């Protein structure tokens, strides 16, 4: 890499670092103190823990690459007087871990301490990257110099980008936690101000009556995984060949209206549609609808399904993708409908392959980054799924709508590492390859800069707090 490239990479890293840190605080600052320190569910974490944990992650990156941090009297490199062990999520390499379900029981760090800690590490990261840039600027591309030892390496670039992407993940996780917490209160807007809500786009091309239409997708050899030049997680690599039989894919995600038919036909009461573990969970937890759905008196005095989310308490919109369903529920619906869930290989081909170009694209619509005209992601500020047919500019080559944004989509694939996998950051993606299902496509809370066609999310099959929905597939006959 040339000196100029080193400088540009340092400048870009610093810019992206500052942007993601600013975005996190935009999400966090409207919270009241009481909301910031509450852990409403063992799955989630207090928002205050989130903002301190992602800061701790950057501290570990700095320490790995030799940055000098001032220590307090207790030996903590944060100058805020709290134990950093509280912020370790699951990294055995960094020592003691606070159990996830206990994060809300510890009132430290306080919100002020967490904010002071963020400010301290922000300055350290900023100065560290500026120092790397300055040391590189004193050299030339032809003259060897010991200063190049201080230049920004490929490993440092990856680790800082990983920290940035890690923080984006926690932005989305915070929003899951906000939804779960504020669902308990009369009106989320009373607890989370200011909440920006944009106008939803107008629908086109698809209606609820036709959203279950399927398209044919040819089989053959397909190369699964990331093949771009930007950042990706190590679990998206290496790109490798798989063989697909011809299949059919739903044009759009399954809608609330379609899912209501499953409920009305007693889908939650018929064991034949459910995997054994899922059926036990339905009985044990008394599930009868997606998470957050309640039946109350609606318009005209009739009983209606309602849901309270960031947009308030409203009747369920039958034209929006169903969301907050587990893998078990998605799989049961697919069986009831005479279909199945797609594999992640099928999903990626339906989203990424362009027959005319004879190659994969980064996004369903092409290689240019998402805008609010293409997909409903975090920066759309809609705070909920959009009606099916809202993003005709974002459809894939095969005509599949909303494969990116709105709702994560469950696939039938187990989360495993690709053949030839090599870890780039131990314990980040490699230790979770058991009892998890892969999801694809992002949701309305996913940052735009994070998502692309080969991005692999993974959750346990019973989890519903994430903004997950699904679309169905079927074997071609």
How would you portray this structure in words?
The protein is an alpha+beta fold and 477 residues long. It has two domains: 3-186; 208-257 and 320-475, paralog of FGE (formylglycine-generating enzyme) (Alpha-Beta Complex). 31% of the residues lie in helices and 12% in strands. It has ten helices and 14 strands. It has helices at 3-28, 33-36, 47-64, 111-137, 154-182, 188-191, 256-264, 276-285, 327-336, 344-352; strands at 214-217, 220-224, 240-244, 247-250, 293-297, 303-309, 312-315, 353-354, 359-360, 408-414, 437-440, 457-459, 468-469, 473-475. The protein has a four-stranded mixed β-sheet.
List keywords for this structure.
single chain; 477 residues; alpha+beta; paralog of FGE (formylglycine-generating enzyme); 3-stranded antiparallel beta sheet; disordered N terminus
Side-by-side strand order of the widest sheet:
12-11-10-13
Q: Proportion of β residues?
A: 5-15%
The count of strands amounts to: 14
Order of helices and strands: HHHHHHEEEEHHEEEHHEEEEEEE
Rg result: 23 Å
Helix content: 25-40%
Question: What's the gist of this structure?
Answer:
It contains ten helices and 14 strands.
List the helices and strands and how they pair.
Blueprint: H1 3-28, H2 33-36, H3 47-64, H4 111-137, H5 154-182, H6 188-191, E1 214-217, E2 220-224, E3 240-244, E4 247-250, H7 256-264, H8 276-285, E5 293-297, E6 303-309, E7 312-315, H9 327-336, H10 344-352, E8 353-354, E9 359-360, E10 408-414, E11 437-440, E12 457-459, E13 468-469, E14 473-475
Parallel strand pairs: 10-13
Antiparallel strand pairs: 1-4, 2-3, 4-14, 5-6, 6-7, 8-9, 10-11, 11-12
Helix pairs in contact: 1-4, 1-5, 3-4, 3-5
């Amino acid at each position: 890499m040339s000196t100029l490239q080193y400088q540009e990479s340092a400048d870009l890293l610093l810019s992206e670092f500052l942007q993601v840190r600013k975005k996190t605080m935009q999400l966090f600052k409207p919270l009241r103190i009481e909301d910031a320190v509450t852990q409403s569910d063992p799955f989630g974490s207090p928002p205050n823990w989130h903002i301190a944990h992602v800061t701790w992650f950057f501290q570990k990156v700095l320490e790995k690459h030799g940055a000098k941090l001032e220590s307090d009297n207790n030996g903590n490199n944060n100058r805020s007087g709290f134990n950093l062990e509280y912020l370790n999520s699951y990294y055995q390499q960094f020592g003691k871990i606070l159990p996830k379900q206990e994060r809300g029981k510890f009132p430290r760090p306080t919100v002020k301490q967490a904010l002071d800690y963020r400010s301290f590490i922000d300055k350290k990261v900023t100065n560290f990257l500026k120092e790397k840039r300055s040391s590189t600027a004193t050299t030339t591309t032809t003259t060897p110099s010991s200063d190049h030892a201080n230049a920004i390496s490929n490993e440092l670039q990856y680790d800082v980008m990983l920290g940035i992407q890690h923080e984006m993940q926690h932005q989305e996780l915070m929003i899951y936690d906000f939804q779960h917490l504020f669902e308990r209160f009369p009106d989320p807007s009373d607890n989370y101000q200011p909440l920006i809500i944009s106008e939803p786009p107008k629908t086109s091309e698809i209606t609820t009556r036709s959203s279950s239409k399927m398209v044919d997708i040819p089989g053959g050899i397909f190369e699964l995984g990331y093949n771009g030049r930007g950042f990706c997680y190590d679990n998206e690599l290496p790109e490798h060949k798989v063989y697909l039989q011809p299949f059919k894919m739903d044009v759009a995600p399954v809608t609330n209206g379609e899912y209501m038919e499953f409920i009305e036909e007693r889908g939650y009461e018929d064991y034949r549609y459910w995997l054994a573990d899922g059926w036990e969970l339905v009985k044990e937890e008394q599930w009868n609808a997606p998470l957050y759905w309640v039946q109350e008196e609606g318009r005209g005095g009739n009983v209606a399904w309602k849901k309270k989310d960031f947009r308030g308490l409203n009747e369920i919109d039958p034209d929006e993708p169903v969301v907050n369903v587990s893998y078990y529920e998605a799989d049961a619906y697919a069986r009831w409908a005479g279909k199945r869930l797609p594999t992640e290989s099928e999903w990626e081909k339906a989203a990424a392959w362009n027959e005319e170009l004879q190659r994969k694209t980064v996004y369903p619509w092409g290689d240019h980054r998402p805008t609010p005209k293409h997909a409903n992601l975090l920066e759309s500020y809609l705070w909920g799924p959009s009606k099916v047919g809202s993003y005709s500019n974002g459809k894939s080559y095969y005509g599949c709508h909303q494969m990116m944004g709105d709702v994560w989509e469950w696939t039938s694939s187990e989360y495993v590492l690709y053949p030839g996998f090599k870890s780039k950051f131990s314990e980040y993606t490699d230790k979770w390859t058991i009892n998890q299902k892969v999801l694809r496509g992002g949701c309305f809370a996913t940052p735009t800069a994070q998502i692309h066609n080969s991005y692999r999310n993974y959750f346990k099959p019973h989890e519903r707090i994430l903004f997950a929905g699904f679309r169905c597939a079927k074997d071609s006959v």
